[in-house]
């Protein structure tokens, strides 16, 4: 009797599976199911489908010319593809979008996009029967009226524009057109590239950082990349040429970044502000994608905070962070809405193996930009009281959980603008102090909060030519309390100088077996293989003074 029941259940399950697969196959190929049922099938697109794309061009000197099509029909991509650099012309990409269940028999779904002067179907094998439709600026669109087109992986579901001859796409499922739009633009206007997503939105990969099986964890800090829209211009480069030619800032910066990633093989990259050079980045998104693509390609998790230049271009901090949060391998988050700044957060690095316990906590805080009170406190902004309160409360709330770690748990922090204590000429430091410390003139007490909560190291950027680590001690007992480091400017789009400053980056090599942090720098030019100023700054979980060399 039991065997008969089991056999019947097995037969029913097999029949149900066969019926599902048959319905799936028939619906995928012939769209037999009504929309009310089809929307529950795996192939259904739950977002919007693009049914047409065009470009609206207009003249700034013609009052009757408009770059905005009927908003009831068209969605405009809010990027002037002349980047507001043309005296007389503007142009915007427009798309028609519909939900799959709203498509009518007259609608066509865009399944192909390309750019060029010639009809893509001309002379291309297998495309003679496909009708590509011409649009302005050399844009060609392939649309399909087949019932199954909306379920195709080729169905275009989103459209965007990126800029520069070096533009890259960093998002999963997106493809950039290498041929730029054919515009009557001058050489000083970065080329515009259409990029499209085909198929459904892909949730970005967000890996959980974890100490390696050998107990080690390496962090690479990249400070002040200063990337542009387009290739950028080198400032104070050493040497002032690159590989026998003109020094192009972003090319050289990204080559340096690539070398560091491949040689150091970090487990986490911290981008500590001014990734984007606001003045030369009218499209911040294009600049962000350039560094992100290198990290995503290598499957390296990364976190970022903002500097004073990131949002000086087209995109404010909230918009940039919303973009960065959706990139693969990004662990960045905007943080609480009820405190000052964008990008106040922390990440946990778990212990090796399958442990769920945190071995290392990395705090990241927004140090803002320029002083809100130039009359009394000229210069740069400071970390606000509500941020410090959030940090204290967060740290206190984590302490009990951190005690469950069988080794010594450690806390570290990253900011962009240095703390006022970086100016202390009486403190010991290792590395070069080349320029004045442009810390805020108002001291909000964040250094003391870090010490109070047991943070052993904080590192910043901002002052490109400074690249020291300074030991902050108790004023009375002289007990070591906190290491305060600079990353050193890595990007050629920002200033250098100060007697021939060579771009560099800082590495933190963390050994959780010994609760030890060793730090050093890598140079872009000269002795590029050496670990410059290598020093142990934390041992046994405690801040230690620099070793004296005879």
Tally of individual helices: 7
Number of strands: 25
Strand order of the largest sheet: 14-13-10-22-23-24-25
Helix content: 10-25%
* Basic shape: globular
State the distance separating the first and last CA atoms.
Answer: 89 Å
Overall pLDDT, averaged? 91
Structural class: alpha+beta
What percentage of amino acids are in beta strands?
Answer: 25-35%
Radius of gyration: 27 Å
Please give a quick description of this structure:
With 550 residues, the chain is of the alpha+beta class. The protein has seven helices and 25 strands. Strand 20 (469-473) and strand 21 form a beta hairpin.
Written overview of the protein:
It is globular and about 80 Å long. The protein has a seven-stranded mixed beta sheet, with helices on one face. A seven-stranded mixed beta sheet has the order 15-16-17-19-21-20-18, covered by helices on one side. It has a three-stranded antiparallel beta sheet with strand order 1-3-2, with no helix packed on it. It contains seven helices and 25 strands. It is of the alpha+beta class and 550 residues long. The longest helix is centred in the first third of the chain and has 29 residues, at 2-30. It starts with a helix and ends in a 7-residue tail after the last strand. Helix 3 (249-264) packs parallel to helix 4 (284-297). The model is unreliable at 29-33 and 35-45 (pLDDT under 50).
